[in-house]
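Work Package 4 report. The design task specified in the project plan requires that, given a folded chain encoded as structure tokens, an amino acid be chosen for each position. We show below one input record used in the internal validation round.
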């Protein structure tokens, strides 16, 4: 069985040290750098977007560079806290109940996109209220750049050799450390492509070429729907978390369950935005 699995693994998994830089007891991991890169590059693209008033409703936007600079910290806190709390609640609650200190061990892995999205949304709501900003336009800005962070995050998952896919014999299958002797789908790369590159192109084209930033909330809805569809699709190739397994049959996963209401929420946001435009 091992020989057969290795034969089908025509692409060698590039074993990259998860630690990018080590300075004595201080270890800087690729996973942490992925978060930093995603947030900073997203901030840079967002600043370029608000510099083009013609993209926005009324050919102006109340959100300034200063607002985006201040929001960086809010976004980072919302993403990290939400992502960690979401992972604990959705995927790994029992061990944390037995030992609450495990919730603080972020370096051992365990972040949930759905939790991170919830945390980021709360951060946006609070920030918009504090500074009297148009909430849906802030949502649209973040949605327009969020796929950048998703791309880097999935690449970091690949480097860490985690969240690998189900066993397969496709020509691009890989044998992951910790994944047993079987060749598997590199599902992290599927997600990096769909949730990152493809979704970024879609939301950017919708906002910059399609003029949909003029209907606040539309781009946010497109992002949410696009992520939900991409995640549900990739879940058919991704190995479910070992502590959960399949929730039903041999196909339903927690990722699918959490993404389905996201799709409905995205559709609601799009319809709400279009109705709002028609009533103006």
């Amino acid at each position: 069985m091992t020989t057969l699995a290795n034969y089908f693994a025509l692409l060698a998994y590039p074993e990259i040290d998860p630690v990018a830089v080590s300075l004595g007891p201080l270890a800087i991991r690729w996973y942490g750098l992925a978060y930093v890169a995603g947030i900073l590059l997203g901030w840079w693209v967002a600043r370029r977007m608000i510099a083009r008033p013609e993209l926005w409703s009324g050919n102006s936007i109340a959100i300034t560079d200063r607002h985006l600079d201040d929001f960086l910290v809010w976004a980072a806190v919302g993403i990290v806290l939400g992502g960690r709390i979401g992972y604990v609640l959705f995927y790994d609650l029992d061990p944390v109940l037995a030992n609450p200190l495990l919730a603080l061990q972020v370096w051992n892995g365990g972040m949930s996109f759905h939790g991170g999205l919830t945390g980021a949304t709360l951060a946006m709501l609070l920030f918009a209220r504090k500074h009297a900003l148009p909430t849906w336009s802030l949502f649209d800005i973040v949605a327009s750049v969020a796929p950048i962070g998703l791309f880097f995050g999935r690449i970091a998952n690949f480097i860490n050799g985690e969240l690998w896919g189900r066993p397969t014999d496709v020509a691009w299958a890989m044998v992951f450390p910790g994944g047993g002797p079987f060749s598997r789908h590199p599902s992290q790369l599927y997600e990096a492509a769909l949730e990152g590159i493809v979704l970024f192109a879609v939301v950017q084209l919708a906002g910059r070429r399609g003029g949909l930033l003029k209907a606040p909330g539309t781009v946010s809805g497109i992002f949410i729907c696009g992520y939900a569809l991409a995640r549900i699709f990739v879940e058919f190739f991704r190995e479910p978390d070992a502590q959960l397994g399949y929730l039903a049959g041999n196909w339903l996963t927690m990722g699918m369950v959490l993404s389905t209401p996201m799709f409905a929420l995205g559709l609601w946001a799009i319809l709400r935005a279009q109705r709002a435009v028609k009533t103006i």
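The chain has nine helices and two strands. Validation will be extended to a larger panel in the next phase.
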